[in-house]
Amino acid sequence: MGEKVMVIGIAGGTGCGKTTITRKLVQAFGNDVTVIYHDNYYKEHHSLTYEERSKLNYDSPDAFDTDMLIDAIRELKRGNPVSCPVYDYTIHDRSDKTITVKPAKVIIVEGILIFHFKELCDEMDIRIFVDTDADVRILRRITRDVRDRGRTLESVISQYLTTVKPMHELYVEPSKKNANIIVPEGGHNLVALEMIIERVRAHLN
After folding, report:
1. Model confidence pLDDT, tens digit, residues 138-167
2. In degrees, to the nearest 5, what angle opens at C-alpha 113 toward C-alphas 117 and 182?
3. DSSP string, the chain
């Protein structure tokens, strides 16, 4: 891989619209883009019971095996595919599956807390923070977790109030200062999206 690989970090609180921006970049550039998710690098907790696992704080920087993600990004930059763990939200644990992430000219790293880690930030060329109102984010979070992750409404609200919101204020919001670009209103911000797409297109050309 002679040409430089561009690494784009996309961060922001739960339900802010990170995935919408990621999806639009993938639609725009197809095989030139590969995506790796910090969420897949949650630490495994096979020794704990489901009850114990459900009480863990999944919104703290300590919940992730970030060094493993950094190694994976470096491998992708060298042009090598990586075998990425898969996290299963329904059991609150790392599953026994892995997925292969292929190298590409543009690597998107997506996650709530990716700008918290200096070493991870140093791997990125562009750091985009998606900024969306808290009430919009909680409603999206409820909808998603109840519909896709088999949670009850009560459990989602309780988790939001006990860990998601405090951790957002403690870690996610302050990490915004490490972004180069702040995008209000996430994937609905077509002007910002267009500018990001142009920037990537310039790199690819």
Report:
1. 898 899 889 988 889 998 898 889 988 999
2. 100
3. --SPPEEEEEE-STTSSHHHHHHHHHHHHGGGEEEEEGGGGBPP-TTS-HHHHHTS-TTSGGGB-HHHHHHHHHHHHTT--EEEEEEETTTTEEEEEEEEEPP-SEEEEE-SSGGG-HHHHTT-SEEEEEE--HHHHHHHHHHHHHHHS---HHHHHHHIIIIIHHHIIIIIHHHGGG-SEEEETGGG-HHHHHHHHHHHHHHH-
User: Which pTM was predicted?
Assistant: 0.90
Tell me how far apart the alpha carbons of residues 168 and 134 are, in angstroms, rounded to a whole number. Answer: 10
Strands 126-131 and 106-110: unpaired
Which amino acid, one-letter code, is at 21?
A: I
- Whether the CA torsion 145, 55, 17, 32 is positive or negative: it is negative
Q: Quick one: pLDDT at residue 174?
A: 96
Q: For residue 163, how many C-alpha atoms fall within 13 Å in the half-sphere facing its CB?
A: 12
